[in-house]
Structure formats: C-alpha cells, structure tokens
Amino acid sequence: MRYLPHTEDDIRLMLDQIGVGSISDLFGSIPASLRLDRPLDLPPALSEPELIRELGRLADANRQNEYSRFVGAGIYDHFAPAMVDHILLRSEFYTAYTPYQPEVSQGTLQAIFEYQSLISLLMEMEITNASMYDGATGCAEAALMARRIGRKRKRVLIARSVHPEFRRVTATYLANDPDDLVDVDVDAHGRVDPADLESKLDEQTACLIVGHPNYFGVLEDLDALAGSVHDAKALFVVTFSEPLAFGLLHGPGRSGADIVAGEGQSFLGAMNYGGPSLGIFSTKDKYVRQMPGRVCGMTEDADGRRGFVLTLSTREQHIRREKATSNICTNQGLCALSATVFLSLMGKQGLRRLAALNLSKAEYLKARIRELSGYALEHDGPTFNEFVIRCERKPAADIHRALYEKKILAGVKLKDDYPEFGSHLLVNVTETHGREDIDRLVRALDEA
Amino acid sequence: MSVPEDLKYSRDHEWVLIEGNIATVGVTDHAQAQLGDVVFIELPEEEDDVTKGESFGTVESTKAVADLYAPASGVVIEVNNDLLDNPETVNQDPYGDAWMIKIEISDEVDLENLMDAETYERFIEEAE
C-alpha cells in the first residue's frame, strides 16, 4: 500500500468531475458560524534538521532508561529482536489500515493465518481469531460469547484475581446487566477460592473467567477449575496478560478451557505507554460461529493454487448489521504480525528457554526476598515471572517512593485495586534484568 | 418451485403445518433456493418461548445468514435436533425432514395472517 498525494491538477479534475468549485464548497452545508475562519493555532513549520533536533529534545525527556524497572501488571518489559521491526516496517505491512482484500493482500492474510496457527498451538486450542484490540476487550467479548452460547444462562462469574482492567472493561460491556457479573473470591494461596466458586456456580452460570497466570502472578489449578465449571454445565474462560508463561506451561486448551482471551503485548516487545496491544482470542471449533472478530482461512483458487481469505464473514457487522456476532470488524493487524515474527524467530525451543529465563530470575528474587527481614511473599501458590511482596516494616507507598528516588521502579502498589492489600507490591522480573539489577533492588528494599 | 397445498405460509418464507394448536415450522423451497447451500442452523431449545414476528433461530448458507421468524407466539415443544448435524437437509427436503420446530400456539389469532399456497405463490411471483 502506498501513500499517493494529490497534485493541484488532480484536485481540480476531481472537483470539476463532481461539479464543485473548490474544496471549501464541499463544507458549504456546515453553517459559517461553526466553521474555523482562521489558520489552526500551530507553531510555524520547521526545516528537517530543526525538526530532528526538536524530536531529539522530546525523546531526551524520556527517563525510562535511567530507571531499573520491575513493573509488569499487564504490560511486560521484554526484548524484541531487531528482525521484528525490520519486517514490521516494510511498506507492504506498515499501513494504518489492514488490507483484507484477497486479490491484493495475500501477504497480510497469510501472516494472519500463521498468527492464528501459532497462537492455536501455543494455547492448545482448536481455533484462534485474527486478534482483538487488547486483552481487556477480549475478556469482555469472551463474557458476551459465553452468554450467547449459554442462551438462558446469563451470569458471568469472574475471579477477583483477573486483571482489574479486564474486569472493569467487562463490567462496562455488561453495564446494562450489572447483576449478571459476579466476583469470585481469592484464597490465601492467591488462587480462586474453591468454596466460594462452588457456592456461586448454578444453572444461571454462563461461565467462569479466571487469570492464568492471574493478576498476582499466581498460576491457577486449571484442571480442577475446569472440572467444577463443566460439572455445572458452564463454560471455562481463561485470560492472561503474560502469554510468555505458556512457553513453559501447557496451553489452557489442554485443561479444558472453552475460551482463551488475553493480552499479547509480551510478544511485541515495545511497551509504548501501555499500547498498542494485541488481543489474543481462541476457542473450540464448535463455538466458532459465536466467536467475535475475523478469521482468516486457507483455501484454493479456481486453478488449485493455495490462497488465503477472510472466512465466516457472514456473521460480521458489514453483512449482519445489528445482528452481527460482535461489534469488532477489524483486528490488530500490525501487532498480530509482530507477534508472528517474534514467535517464529523464537521457535518452540527459544520460547521455552526465554520463559525459563524469566522463571528462574523471578525465583532468584523470590529467594532473596525470603531472606529479607520486613518483607514476605504474600502467596504460596506457584508463580511465573511476577509475584506479590508484603511490606511489613512500613507502608508499600513509602517503600515505593524511597526506591523511586534511587531510580528503581519497585512494581505496582496493589492498594488501589485491592484495599485488603494495603501494603503490597506486585513485582515483575523478566529476561531484561541482570543479576546485579535484582541484587540492587534487594539492597534498596533492605535499606528502605 | 414446490408449494404444498396443505400448508400455510408467512411473508418471511416459512411454512406452517397446523394440527390443532400445534404448529410445525420450516422454511420454504423458495427460501432454500434463494439461500443456496445451507451450512449451519441455530434453533431454540424445548420449552423456550417464541414470539410472533421475532427471531427464533438462524439459517446460514455460504453467502448469508438469515433469521427464522416465529409465525405465532407460543412454547417450543419439539426441536428437530437432527437438522443441526445435517443442515443440507434444508436444501434436500425443505417440507419434510427439514422441519425445524413445533410450537404449542398460545393464541390462534396469530395464524390468521398466514397465506394459503395460492396466495404465497403469487407473493413469490410479485417479489420477483
């Protein structure tokens, strides 16, 4: 796809063709009082060297590289090989609009198909869509999908350990049926409380939504949860914000997940102030017609040559209008491509080794925290690369501030989302942290 | 185009077989021909309530998804679940094996607007 500017002659020709004198005439139906009659209030244009200097000045205002960062909580600090950007920035791919027309977009469509295939393998699910906007909207769409499949079953149970932003977006999507969204408690291990779950599962339940790893970094007992949920004839929805965990863990599909919806930013590298992100969404074949979003399929043309096309479009908004399965008629094309390049570069073994590196570094920090007086690990459940520290000597906010002054970002304070965790920090360790970074964090905690 | 004499027809191209207060519902030969190859069907469950004029399910072909509209209000007493596994039956035998649901009608007044075979045939011709 190319950007094609118009010459004065092009513009004249188009105006003449439709019988309009000037471009401003096109806005004639807007009352003059509503139209801006002066130039926009912008600084004068810069020359190229001036512009580069200005952008450099703005870039230098970024402080992130001065800080040692242990912040995850949904967006993770991972390294992306230079190859990812190299492929991403090719003009065929780098467009604001994802071109889906099979006649001109075989490359894009094949990339989407490969994305779907890679994610299906990783999640051990039968089918994956072309992606959603992000993990939070994917979670909300999973809730709506479970309600469609459940027919009369409309109640969505959601673990309090699911990412708070996922829960808030889901509540927004269900704003007209607030009684249909019910929280399930978390036990002392940091996992879904089985007793509370059993008391809430009934013939009204459409699904249970859990996080895995959950927001506290803890891994859920998916097999047991799937058993309880399926005994109640409800659907089991697994969300996540750290898909790298599945480099080591088996996919949620193997435990019986009916829908998997999560955030794929970990496979994109860049954090970019929290976006753009990638909504991963997978399900079982039998639910494909209730699945939101687009799907790319592989087929053959009239001459028997392999080709890629969007499929099952009959249920999308441009055809079914208000009766469409969902409102999403697009995908995160570039982010899905980025994840595809990343996963194919890593390969099965590479992803496993990267995940193992995350786990062992996080376990190293856990071991050091255990030795530290005045700090404790809040949960004894197994974790991946993130976990909750309880600060016993002074409030978490004070410790967070003290470390910030030493240019260490010591995770996320949980108090705002979880009042019961008033003195707790959610801390993340990835492959980007060296041993000396982790030791410096531990020393700073000890001195705080 | 086959339009059996013993059935009633709706403007949404459904046929209705009326036996006492039980209405058996399917889509017409004309409807299946217009849709093309049917690949998927969604039907309600037994004991579901249906409302005259509102959607009770969908028929999906390779080119479109069409709603099924209830010709009368009532309770679904039987569902042809075999159809879900063999949607192509709609193309092969629309008035026989491809019946969809049986409704216990709550008010027979609902049936008064249905067309007889002759009227339905004219209705199709006019639409074309």
Give a written overview of the molecule:
The complex is a heterodimer of chains A (448) and B (128). By secondary structure, chain A is an alpha/beta fold. Chain A has a seven-stranded mixed sheet with strand order 2-8-7-6-5-3-4, with helices on both faces. In chain A, strands 11-12-15-14 form a four-stranded antiparallel sheet, covered by helices on one side. In chain A, strand 5, helix 8 and strand 6 form a beta-alpha-beta unit. In chain A, helix 3 packs antiparallel against helix 10. Chain A is globular, with a radius of gyration of 25 Å. Chain B has a six-stranded antiparallel sheet. In chain B, strands 4-6-7 form a three-stranded antiparallel sheet. The two termini of chain B are 13 Å apart. The model of chain B has no long low-confidence stretch (mean pLDDT 94).
CA-atom Rg of chain A in angstroms = 25 Å
Largest β sheet strand count, sense and barrel closure of chain B: 6 strands, antiparallel
How would you write the strand order of the largest sheet of chain B? 1-2-3-9-8-5
Q: What is the H-and-E element order of chain A?
A: HHEHHEHEHEHEHEEEEEHHEEHEEEH
Strand content of chain B: 25-35%
Number of helices of chain B: 4
Q: Roughly how many Å apart are the termini of chain B?
A: 13 Å
Rg of chain B, rounded, reads: 13 Å
Strand order, largest beta sheet of chain A: 2-8-7-6-5-3-4
Which runs of chain A of at least 5 residues are low in confidence (pLDDT < 50)? none
* Total helical segments of chain A: 12
Count of DSSP strands of chain B: 9
Oligomerization category of the chains in this entry: heterodimer
Record field, number of beta strands of chain A: 15
Helical proportion of chain B? 10-25%
What portion of residues of chain A belong to β-strands?
A: 5-15%
- Provide mean pLDDT of chain A, rounded: 94
